[in-house]
Amino acid sequence: MLELGAIVFMVFVVWAALAAGMVMLKFLLTVLLLPLRVLVSILLLPLLLVKALLGGILMLVFLPIAAVGMVLGLIALAVVAVPLLPLAFLCVVIWFVVRASRPPALPA
Predict the structure, then answer these.
(1) Is residue 73 part of a domain?
(2) Number of structural domains in the chain
(3) Of residues 93, 73, 96, the one with CA closest to residue 85
(4) How far is CA 67 from the centre of its chain?
(5) How many helices (H) and strands (E) does the chain have?
(6) Each residue's pLDDT expressed in tens, for the chain with a length of 108 residues
(7) CA distance 83 to 90
(8) Measured CA angle at 59 (ends 57, 61), to 5 deg
């Protein structure tokens, strides 16, 4: 049993050493590649601004179209739903009658 504990302890030690090595490697790569990351960010900033500007312009163009489409969709929904309201009322009344005619369930 002591040998099994020693093996488990060795596995934990190796695991901790690998984890520490990975943390150190990540830190080293972060420090070494930080200037490149900053340079790429500075170079891509104008493209990000152009993307935001084009997105805003497209939103201003398509927002009224979407609003009109939503209003037309609500009108179409009302045109379809209003004639079906008497049928829905009839179904609810039938459901209440059938439900009331059943004997009550026994409490558990």
Answers:
(1) yes
(2) 1
(3) 93
(4) 24
(5) 2, 0
(6) 888 999 999 999 999 999 999 999 999 999 999 999 999 999 999 999 999 999 999 999 999 999 999 999 999 999 999 999 999 999 999 999 999 888 877 776
(7) 13
(8) 70
Query: Which pTM was predicted?
Result: 0.44
CA 54, 60, 64, 70: dihedral to nearest 10 degrees?
A: 60
What is the spatial distance between Cα 18 and Cα 21, in angstroms, rounded to a whole number?
A: 5
Q: 82 is in which domain, residue-wise? A: 2-101
Tell me how far apart the alpha carbons of residues 100 and 102 are, in angstroms, rounded to a whole number. Answer: 6
Q: Please give the span between the terminal C-alpha atoms of the chain, in angstroms, as a whole number.
A: 54
- DSSP three-state, residue 107: coil
* In-domain check, residue 37: yes
> Is residue 27 in some structural domain?
yes
106 domain residue, yes or no: no
Calpha distance 103→106 (Å, rounded): 9
Looking up tokens 């004639």 gives: 83
